[in-house]
Amino acid sequence: MDIRKIHEQLKAEGFTPENTTPPGGSYVSVNIRANIAYIAIQFPIAQEQFLFTGRLGQELTTQDGYKAAKLAAMNVLGQINKYVGFDKITGLNHIDVYYQAAGNWDDGPIVANGASDLFLNIPGDAGKHSRAIFGVDKLPRNFSVGLTTSFTIKED
């Protein structure tokens, strides 16, 4: 994994490590067990601003949802950078994408691609993953999208 390239690509996307969001409750952002790093749910937050709030298919478009998932994925990478280090990552294992939407909206896979595309483009092969997509009734702070992930890290 080319760490310099990852930092350059994140910067090109408008992300800097200082933008990493703190936990919103009584938990840690990254929990490491054995050689797996579990990243707590990340939302579309940039520079302490809550973005892409509302329901997909109602207040927000599918394209807004794609952008929200991409931003949440950038926040995941920010957490990895801050608490683990890209040099210690073997690869992304799995992502869970949560979204809130209007009853007749059904483009969850397109929205989830916002995160998947970022992970496949920035870390490259290390970003290959499985995923699950969940439509939920409500997310905290009325976020449209939330994302949890797990990564395999190199053993010492």
TrEMBL record:
Question: What Gene3D superfamilies is this protein classified in?
Answer: RutC-like
Q: Which residues form the Endoribonuclease L-PSP/chorismate mutase-like domain?
A: 24-142
Taxonomically, the superkingdom here is Bacteria
Q: Which InterPro entries match?
A: Endoribo_LPSP/chorism_mut-like, RutC-like_sf
Q: What is this protein's record name?
A: YjgF/chorismate_mutase-like putative endoribonuclease
Upper lineage is: Bacteria, Pseudomonadati, Bacteroidota, Chitinophagia, Chitinophagales
